[in-house]
């Protein structure tokens, strides 16, 4: 059954058909991967979810509905997030950005801002990894804000000892607004962001087309939001504060120029696990932004 499901997904052009078939089978059966694999030679009754439910899930994925929409969740590091239509699905490249920050952070109680938070993925990953961190998660889209609220509330209920509800603040705001977060101007230790950066008209896969367009595309060169964001971020960060910004693998030179103009130093391209330059880090130089 798994082999047939994987073959159907492969024929549809899914990138990881075997892994996705297994994940959908686990979701259908309500069993983890190990339990399902241990039972792989067992007879499958006619009323098993693997017969009654799995074929429909496979058919949906074969139509290139995102896997995360079908199972209802996505993960970023050790944080599980509810996802669905109306919010950007977190990708592995963002894990690299967050992991880089976590490895370099030496502060026990940093003030962090997650711009374009979407599901709340970055904010919650930081709050889960650094128990003293205080994070402001900023989002403009009402639909995405509802998903982020759901995820923050779920994380707070699942891990009460982390005091997520006290430490993660959800803010409706525009990342390009010069008046954003006035109470934090010049005080923020780190800004982490995965803004929209795909040039309009770019060919994207079916899964990306399922994301909200405003969370993916940003003008002819993909930099229409990053340009006005840069001075906003500079104003929020304290001198010496850190920025990590995700972007397309070809955009680092342009992003570096934008950040240099905004007063950043130490501008460095960072690579993902495939060796592509997928995010840039920088340090706020000089006096606090005004």
TrEMBL record:
Residues 110-200 form the Methyltransferase small domain. PROSITE patterns: N6_MTASE (PS00092). InterPro entries: DNA_methylase_N6_adenine_CS, HemK-like, N5-glutamine_MTase, PrmC_N, RF_methyltr_PrmC, SAM-dependent_MTases_sf, Small_mtfrase_dom. PANTHER family: HEMK METHYLTRANSFERASE, MTRF1L RELEASE FACTOR GLUTAMINE METHYLTRANSFERASE. The keyword Nucleotide-binding does not apply. Gene3D superfamilies: DNA helicase RuvA subunit, C-terminal domain, Vaccinia Virus protein VP39. Keywords: Methyltransferase, S-adenosyl-L-methionine, Transferase. Residues 2-72 form the Release factor glutamine methyltransferase N-terminal domain. S-adenosyl-L-methionine binds at residues 139, 194. NCBIfam families: hemK_fam, RF_mod_PrmC. The keyword Methyltransferase applies. One of its GO terms (biological process) is methylation. The lineage of its organism: Bacteria, Bacillati, Actinomycetota, Actinomycetes, Mycobacteriales. It catalyses: L-glutaminyl-[peptide chain release factor] + S-adenosyl-L-methionine = N(5)-methyl-L-glutaminyl-[peptide chain release factor] + S-adenosyl-L-homocysteine + H(+). This is Release factor glutamine methyltransferase. Its EC number is 2.1.1.297. Belongs to the protein N5-glutamine methyltransferase family. PrmC subfamily.
């Amino acid at each position: 059954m798994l082999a047939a499901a994987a073959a159907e997904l492969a024929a549809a052009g899914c990138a990881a058909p075997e892994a996705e078939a297994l994940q959908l089978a686990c979701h259908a059966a309500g069993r983890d991967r190990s339990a399902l694999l241990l039972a792989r030679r067992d007879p499958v009754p006619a009323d098993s979810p693997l017969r009654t439910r799995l074929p429909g899930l496979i058919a949906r994925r074969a139509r290139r509905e995102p896997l995360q929409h079908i199972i209802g969740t996505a993960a970023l590091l050790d944080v599980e997030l509810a996802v669905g239509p109306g919010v950007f699905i977190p990708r592995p490249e963002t894990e690299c950005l967050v992991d880089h920050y976590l490895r370099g952070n030496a502060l026990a109680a940093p003030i962090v801002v997650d711009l374009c938070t979407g599901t709340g993925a970055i904010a919650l990953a930081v709050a889960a990894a650094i128990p003293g961190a205080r994070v402001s998660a900023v989002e403009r889209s009402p639909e995405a804000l509802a998903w982020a609220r759901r995820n923050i509330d779920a994380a707070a209920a699942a891990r009460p000892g982390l005091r997520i509800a006290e430490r993660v603040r959800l803010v409706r705001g525009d990342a390009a607004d010069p008046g954003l977060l006035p109470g934090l101007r010049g005080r923020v230790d780190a800004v982490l962001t995965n803004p929209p950066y795909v040039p309009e008209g770019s060919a994207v896969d079916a899964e990306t087309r399922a994301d909200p367009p405003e969370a993916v595309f940003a003008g002819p060169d993909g930099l229409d939001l990053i340009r006005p964001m840069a001075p906003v971020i500079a104003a929020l960060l304290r001198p010496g504060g850190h920025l990590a910004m995700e972007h397309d693998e070809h955009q680092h030179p342009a992003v570096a120029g934008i950040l240099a103009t905004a007063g950043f130093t130490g501008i460095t391209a960072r690579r993902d696990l495939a060796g592509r330059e997928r995010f840039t880090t920088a340090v706020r130089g000089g006096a606090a932004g005004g």
